[in-house]
Specification:
single chain; 115 residues; mainly beta; PH-domain like; eight-stranded antiparallel β-sheet; 1 helix
């Protein structure tokens, strides 16, 4: 599998997640958290997404899933993980340098941004 990643500029975060909200809703995903003090922890496996939003005022990224609300305070970096078929996941780094990896069970085809 050939995967690429692209770092989103902070100014794109809010717009990107607003644009992706409908397409991500109901997609199954896994959330894994990694960090030196934490080790590797899988928080969820194959759970339907309800949405992902970024609140710039509160500096908070919310990953809403069926039965779980995963909050990432003060994210410092968000990368889009893509395969040939489309978006396969996200990698978010928080202020404590923990990586939160959201992996979609099936890729989501991304459409070109509209003007």
């Amino acid at each position: 599998m050939n995967m690429t990643s692209r770092i989103l500029d902070r100014s794109e975060w809010h717009i990107f997640f607003d644009r992706m909200a409908k397409a991500l809703r109901g997609k199954r995903a896994q959330v894994e958290i990694t960090g030196l003090r934490l080790g590797d922890q899988i928080q969820t496996k194959s759970v339907p997404l309800l949405g992902i939003t970024f609140d710039p005022k509160g500096d908070l990224l919310e990953i809403a899933m069926e039965g779980l609300d995963h909050l990432i305070h003060k994210p410092t970096s968000i990368a889009i993980l893509e395969e040939v078929d489309g978006l396969s996941g996200l990698e978010i780094v928080d202020s404590e340098e923990h990586r939160q990896i959201v992996t979609l069970t099936s890729p989501l085809r991304l459409s070109a941004p509209r003007d």
